[in-house]
Design goal:
The two termini are 27 Å apart. Helix 5 packs antiparallel against helix 9 and helix 5 packs antiparallel against helix 10. The protein has 266 residues and is mostly helical. It has one domain.
Amino acid sequence: MSLDKIMAIMGKEFDEIMKNKYILGSLVAIPLLFSLLLPASLIAPVVFYPEAYLNTNETSFAAIASGNGDAPQDALILFFMKAIIPFFMMLPAILPTIVASYSIIGEKRNRTLEPLLAAPVSVYDILAGKALSAIIPALAATWLSALLFCVVAEAIIYVGLRRIIFPDVAIWLLGMLVLAPLLAFMGIMIAIIISSRVNDPRVAQQVSAILVVPIMAFFVGQMSGFLLIDLKVMAGAAALMVILDAVVLVLGKSLFDREEILTRWR
């Protein structure tokens, strides 16, 4: 691979992103929605109406709250802050697919893909350039969204309880700095592979959305008490994603047939 060629491809991709209002809107609107809606819907009720969770016999919330030594309300807040992590791991799985799917298909429609594929660059250069140009803005949006969520959540906690309850920093850092990039890479590679073989970006986005299913399993498991998110679970998920990313990279290189794309999409 050539760093200069990858940087040139990335520069071209960033120019296209800045011109596409749909992509820019998605990069702003979806993370903003997550960072504001999640504190309001999950953290605020625990802060202002904890009895709704502590007095019910239909869920395991009361048992979870009383089982770790913290005050029940504090334990519930920490519990929900862990349960929210999968939502922010969804962002790097969803946002890059929007960028990557339009990257290939948009170039097909604008007739700018053929010169790139005919240029003296390797498939790995093309995949790396397109992947990084989607990963960087998606991760930036994800991290800013997570930071804004923490600020809003802590503001809600302080207004209601007059104190600050910090989330589990190690778990959040592992999720945002390790799992998020791995998930972003997986989503991008799937989107690039699919969009190189279809002519509708919505198809690529819908197929790539299958990544959301296992991520939401983390949320459902945490909320049901079946799978509690901790460092071991997050580290295991990260190790699995490293293996899957390696597999999808090799698969993407073999399926991204530049000769077929050049002849098929004229």
